[in-house]
Design goal:
The complex is a heterodimer of chains A (about 220) and B (about 240). With about 220 residues, chain A is α+β, with helices and mostly antiparallel strands. Chain A has a single domain, classed as Jelly Rolls, CATH 2.60.120.10. Chain A is about 30% helix and about 25% strand. Chain A is built from 6 helices and 12 strands. In chain A, the strands form 3 sheets. In chain A, strands 2-3-4-12-6-9 form a 6-stranded antiparallel β-sheet, sandwiched between helices. In chain A, α1 packs across α3 and α2 packs across α3. The relative contact order of chain A is 0.17. In chain B, α3 runs antiparallel to α4, α6 packs across α9 and α8 crosses α9. The radius of gyration of chain B is 19 Å and the shape is globular. Chain B has a domain of about 120 residues: Orthogonal Bundle (Rna Polymerase Sigma Factor, Chain: A). Chain B is an all-alpha fold and about 240 residues long. Helices cover about 65% and strands about 0% of the residues of chain B. Chains A and B meet through α1, α2, α3, β1 and α4 of A and α1, β1, α3, α4 and α5 of B. β1 of chain A pairs antiparallel with β1 of chain B, so a sheet runs across the interface.
Chain lengths: ~220, ~240
C-alpha cells in the first residue's frame, strides 16, 4: 500500500496525548491501522511523552500509598490480565477484511456485511453511533465518477478512504489516505471513475449540514 | 445517560482548563532541586511521605518491569513504584489539581502496571513510554468517558511493517538512549510546548493564546522539535 496523505502533527499529538474527541480519534486510529509510517511518528511522540514523564517534577506520595496498593494486589481478582485475546473470527475467510479495526467494530462488520442506506442516485451512507456528540461520523459510498460542486466549510473535516479513490484538484486520495480540511479549504472532490469510493467522513457535529459531505450529497439528493 | 455523563465531564474539564490556564506549571528538564537516589527493595520512610526516587536507568526499569511480569516480584514493583508513582501522580495533578484525585488515579495506573506487566515487551525497551500510555489511557477513560477507539495489532486487516528482527529491537533500545540525550538538548521553549501538549491537554491554538504567540509560531516550533528529535535518532544509524 502506498499512502500519500498522512495525519498532521497536530492531530497525531492529540491522539498521543489523549485529547481527541471520539470521532476524530476513530478516523486517526483507522488511518494508523493502515499506515506504518504514521505509527512510527506516533511512536516517536509517545517516546517523547515518556521521556517528559521521566523528567517531570515528582509529587511526594504518602508512605501508606504502597501499602494500599499491596493490599489491593493481594485481594483483587485479576480479571483483566488473565483474559487472553480472542482471535477475531476471520479464520475461515481467505482474504483479510477491507475495513480495519477500530472502525469495523463501530460498523458491526466488514464491507460485505453492511446495510447501506440509500441516498438516491447511487450514493449510500451509514451513520456511525458515537458516545461523544461533538463529532459526527459516517461511512459514505460515492458513485464512481460523480462530480461534487466546489465548496468551503466551517469546521474541521476528516475523510479517510477505505476503497476506491477520489480526486481533489490535483490530489488523488486512495485507500488509507486521510484528507484533513478546515474552514480555509475550498475544494472539489470527485470520485474516481471505475469504482465507487467508500470513505469514513468525520465532521464537527454542529456544522453537519454545512460540511462538504452534505454538499457532496446535495446533487445526489437533489436538494 | 452517556450524554448526561458527558455534560458533567465537559464542565469539569473546563474548570480544570481554566485553573491550569492561570499559571504555567513546571516544565520537565528544568528541575532545580535534587532528588534522592533510588532505594532498592524496602522503602525508606521519612515522615509520612515517600521521597521520590531520583534515578532509574532505562535498562533497570525494563528489567524491573520484566521481573514483575514474569515472577510477580513485589520488591521490583516497589522500586518501580518509588520511581514512577510520584511522577505519574505529578502527571495526573496537571489536570486535576486535586492531590487526592491525583493519588487515586496514580494508584489505578500502578495497579494496571502490576496487572499488565506480563504484556510489556522489554526488547522494545521503554518502560517510561509504556507507563505513560497506561496513564494517558486512564486519563481519557476518566475524563472523557467516551469509547477510546484504537488500532488492533492482531486485526487481520492491520498493515504491518517488515517483520521486526532482533536487530530492530536492539536499535530501538539505542533509539531510546539517543532520544533521551536529544531531549536534554532541546531548547526550553520547545520542551514547554511539548509539555503543554502532552501533559496539559492543550491544543495548538490554546497554547498560542496561553503563551501569547502566533499560532504559526507554535506549529513551527513543534514541527522543529520533532524534526530535531527525528534527526538525532537518524544520526546514530
Amino acid at each position: 500500500m502506498n499512502i500519500r496523505h498522512h495525519v498532521s502533527d497536530e492531530l497525531l499529538m492529540g491522539y498521543a496525548s489523549g485529547t481527541l474527541e471520539e470521532g476524530w480519534r476513530l478516523a486517526v486510529a483507522t488511518h494508523l491501522a493502515l499506515c506504518p509510517n504514521c505509527r512510527a511518528r506516533l511512536n516517536l511522540m509517545e517516546n517523547t511523552a515518556g521521556e517528559l514523564l521521566e523528567n517531570i517534577s515528582p509529587l511526594p506520595v504518602e508512605t501508606s500509598s504502597f501499602d494500599r496498593l499491596k493490599e489491593r494486589i493481594r485481594t483483587e481478582v485479576i480479571a483483566a490480565s488473565v483474559s487472553p485475546r480472542q482471535p477475531t473470527s476471520f479464520a475461515k475467510v481467505d482474504s483479510p477484511p477491507i475495513i480495519p479495526e477500530p472502525l469495523r467494530s463501530y460498523l458491526g462488520g466488514d464491507l460485505t456485511e453492511l446495510k447501506w442506506k440509500s441516498l438516491g442516485r447511487g450514493a449510500y451512507h451509514i451513520p456511525i453511533k458515537l458516545a461523544d456528540r461533538s463529532t459526527t461520523a459516517r461511512l459514505l459510498r460515492i458513485p464512481a465518477g460523480k462530480p461534487v460542486p466546489e465548496h468551503s466549510h466551517g469546521g474541521r473535516e476528516l475523510t479517510l478512504v477505505l476503497s476506491g479513490s477520489f480526486n481533489d484538484g490535483e490530489l488523488v486520495f486512495a485507500r488509507g489516505d486521510l484528507e484533513e480540511a478546515d474552514a480555509s479549504v475550498q475544494h472539489q472532490p470527485l470520485a474516481t471513475p471505475g469504482q465507487d469510493c467508500i470513505c469514513l467522513a468525520v465532521t464537527d457535529a454542529p456544522l453537519r449540514f454545512r460540511s462538504w459531505i452534505m454538499r457532496l450529497l446535495q446533487p445526489v439528493l437533489g436538494i | 445517560m452517556i450524554q448526561e455523563a458527558g455534560g458533567t465531564v465537559t464542565g469539569a474539564m473546563e474548570t480544570i482548563r481554566a485553573i491550569s490556564a492561570t499559571a504555567i506549571p513546571d516544565i520537565p528538564f528544568a528541575r532545580t532541586r535534587p532528588v534522592a537516589p533510588v532505594q532498592r527493595g524496602r522503602q525508606k520512610k521519612r515522615g509520612r511521605m515517600i521521597e521520590p526516587a531520583g534515578e532509574l536507568t532505562k535498562d533497570e526499569a525494563c528489567s524491573l518491569l520484566e521481573a514483575v511480569g514474569r515472577d510477580g516480584d513485589i520488591e521490583s514493583f516497589e522500586t518501580l513504584f518509588r520511581y514512577y508513582g510520584p511522577r505519574v501522580k505529578a502527571y495526573m495533578a496537571r489536570l486535576t489539581r486535586d492531590p487526592n484525585v491525583a493519588e487515586e488515579l496514580m494508584q489505578e495506573v500502578m495497579i494496571t502496571v502490576w496487572n499488565k506487566a506480563g504484556q510489556f515487551e522489554a526488547t522494545r525497551g521503554n518502560a517510561g513510554t509504556w507507563i505513560f500510555t497506561i496513564a494517558r489511557n486512564l486519563r481519557i477513560d476518566v475524563y472523557r468517558k467516551n469509547r477510546r477507539p484504537d488500532f488492533d495489532v492482531n486485526d487481520p486487516a492491520f498493515v504491518t511493517e517488515d517483520a521486526k528482527s532482533a536487530e530492530n529491537a536492539l536499535a530501538e533500545r539505542q533509539d531510546a538512549a539517543r532520544l533521551k540525550k536529544a531531549m536534554k538538548n532541546l531548547p526550553q521553549e520547545q520542551i514547554q510546548l511539548l509539555t503543554l501538549s502532552f501533559f496539559d491537554d492543550c491544543s495548538h491554538s490554546t497554547i498560542a493564546n496561553k503563551l501569547n504567540l502566533p499560532l504559526g509560531t507554535v506549529k513551527s516550533r513543534i514541527r522543529l522539535a520533532f524534526a530535531r528529535l527525528r534527526a538525532a535518532l537518524e544520526d546514530g544509524k
